[in-house]
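Hello forum,

I keep getting stuck at the same step: I have a sequence, I want structure tokens, and every attempt I make locally crashes halfway through. Rather than fight my setup again tonight, could one of you with a working pipeline run this one for me? It's a single chain of 985 residues.
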Amino acid sequence: MVPTLIVLGLLVVAFVYFSQVYADVLWYNQLGFLEVFVTENLSRIGLFVAAFLIMGASVYFSLRIAYRSRPIYAPDSNVQDNLNRYQAQLEPIRKLLMIGIPIVLGAFAGTAASSQWETMLLFFNAEPFGEVDPEFGLDIGFYVFTLPFLGFLLGFLISIVVISGIAAILTHYLYGGIRLEEKGLFTSRAARTQIAVLAALFLILQGVNYWLDRYATVTSSDGNWTGALYTDVNAVIPTKAILAAAAVIVAVLFIVSAVIGRWRLPVIGTAMLVITAILAGGVYPWIIQRVQVEPNEFAREEQYIESNITMTRAAYGLDDVQVNNYPVEEVPQEGALNADGETTANIRLLDPNLVSDAFSQLQQFRQYYQFPEILNVDRYEIDGEVEDTVIAVRELNTAGVPDGWVNEHVFYTHGYGVVAAAGSTVQPDGRPEFIQSGIPTTGVLGDESTYEPRIYFGDESPEYSIVGAPEGAAPQEIDRPETEGATQEARSTFQGDGGPRIGNFFNRLVYALKFQSTDLLLSDQVNSESQILYDRDPVDRVEKIAPYLTLDSNSYPAIVDGRVKWIIEGYTTTTEYPYSTQQELQSATVDSLTAEGVATALPAEQVNYIRNAVKATVDAYDGSVDLYAWDDQDPILKAWQKVYPTSLKPYSEMSADLMAHVRYPEDLFKVQRELLARYHVTETLPFFNNSEAWTVPVDPTLEEEEQEVKQPPFYLSLQMPEQESASFSLTTPFIPFVPEGQQARNILYGFLAADGDAGTGEDGVKAETYGTLRLLDTSGEDSAVGPGQAANLFNSDTNVSQELNLLRQGASEVISGNLLTLPIGGGIAYVQPVFVQSSGDSSFPVLRRVLVSFGEQVGFAPTLAEALDQVFQGDSGAETGDSENVGETPDDPAAPPAGEEPTGEPTEEPTGEPTPPADPGTGDPAADLRAALEDANAAIQEGQAALAEGDFAAYGEAQERLDQALQRALDAETRLSEAGGEPTE
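Reply #2:
Ran it on my machine without issues. Output:
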């Protein structure tokens, strides 16, 4: 029975492994990317087999040669007696060891080699860069494609020689071919020959290694700058060549020793090689660095610093940055914003990092829906004008799904609908101005007749769902509520091709094993037309079919050609670009959002070259993936296109609608701004002195103890100086470099904007200006206010602090929105929305005020238009998105409290007495303000008393009266300020 059980166990393990491979084949084949799976795995298998056979055969023949050449009549000695005992013990398993050891070592070698499949494929499909390095004059493709493969191959061969040599020495020693005697070390002729040949091979390979190390100096980061510096060029590179020649000479000496039978020459040669390696490889370069370079470093290193600047800027796409000096106007003038209409009309007041709760409370409608913590910014054409929008999709919330396999995997399968709000305006009461909302989905972006609203694939989709049914079968999937307030759910059936078919028993068994679910195998809910949807996160989905790409941490949704598409940015990277400074992706992409855990940074991967090579889309309904070769001039992408000839489409196949929603990648921009903070300097002397270095400011909206992380970049539609029209751009400010341990000088030194408008209105045509980096250099203006100073101006302004204190009355919380930096009016303006959130589980932030600064002037008003007018002498000349809201502050007594909107569920009518209407005012703003504050204080006391007694109904009524009183106080205070009076303490 034991052999039978063993065989059965092996068969079960083999079937489980086969089922996983078969499931992957079904998944890749259904998506149309089977070539990716086949190519990768065949490459891995080919490398494994080759390395296994070469390593295994080398070790086997080394052992066999050593064993067969063992001395037959070894002299007797105590040592030999001990060895005879070892030989006797090993003899019964000698043949097994002679085969087993090579197999085990070959398996290890094969596993290690198979991980280099990408290196191998790039080597055999290499593309020239058309540019050469400054030191050796070789095409950069040699360093990116050829040198890594040669390094891998050389390391593998050296390991074979070393392991084979160790195996031979141990075998010769065990069987008497090598032994210690009173006269010294005895070696048989066979042992001496075999060891000499292996030593010669090792030294020849080491000589090749020394030679290749010369080329590695151009990517070395051992010096103050990346690349081959003065010491490398004048000491390291020549000595590496000398060591390569010396290693080959010593190898010849070993071959000679094998013939003449004496070890003296190779031993002396080896000792000399070691001494030379120490002196020439370490001491001599140190002397050159210490004596010639350090006393006159700039003069020695200038040409190499210039190479580092040039190559780093090229490697990160910074060589075409458009730099303009921007003398900053500090005194706001009346009508100064007349020429900035396109920018001011799209100043985003709705902070996508704060309004998720508002979307949830106003548009979630069911507990099984959810919105992400951070929403996305996009732009859409509305009434003939392109406007910035804050957008999200209503995804399925698996935590809100009733327990049970059928509910979790059959009934609740998808989310529903796009929800979008205007970015530059809100409703008069501070709630988002939705342009696309509701169930069924309606709005200016379309309805169910114009786009498919069902979200089967997204960031929060279930692990797997079973969808599909025979024609005519009753729908099983919970589709959506029939209407926003309905208690009944509409049902639907998935009609697309979104996953592998599991209608037959074998496929069901395969996926039952994969997901370890007997329900999947036995449930009657699985029918002949069923499909299984899994791997539904858009980023994970693209990562599986494009393993050669580094993917942006954020995917964003857009309505494209009647479908909801997730758009993901893909990067090609390398660490082998000559003279380019390395950057760790994770540290470069960390900001205040990633530090709080609401966004994700890139992995901790070192790069010194990066391109946004691919734009990927994932259909939110059927999960279909399209990869577009966006940077079709990138040599690394060209190489991968040769590897996967059918996987990538040219960007000329992108529709005009998709082009219109492509934007500049956020993580690439973060990497670029980190480097540009220093590499905006192109002259070698200031670069060497680091006298003109900048840095990205910390986020001033955080609490003081948290202000250790960088401000995130922001998407804005703005018109940069000397730009013909506004474009959808990614922006960031710069301040002077802050040495460690010193306090930041928070003045503005630079402002960077990346043009993200790719659309031209034509299919497959990319805008020529897309990707243009425009840098405003304000470093000559030491008085230009930086983001931190703007935040301090806001916090220290007496009127602002008084009004914020009013907003904080009761249980309300004041939340600062994102601080936007805008080059308008000939200077720099800062705009920050201020949100208020009341207490309660269903509360959410609502926009109550807008802060504006320009120079030293601060404006604070219910709308952006009013705040700008306050700053620019009563008339800014700006057209803003919320201009029509001027004077429409919420004072309706019947309006719900701020942030206390219903969630869409049916609610009961209040049973208490109606709340008395708010005092319309006496006409005297100072008296009205005092009366309102007295009413607010009374409401606070009544609410606290009710809460102490556990009377939550009375507490809610008191909160309503408090909110109304606070609004009356704010209105009165605004009227008082307009009349020129002083606010009452």
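The first helix runs from residue 2 to 31. If your local run keeps crashing, start a new thread with the error log.
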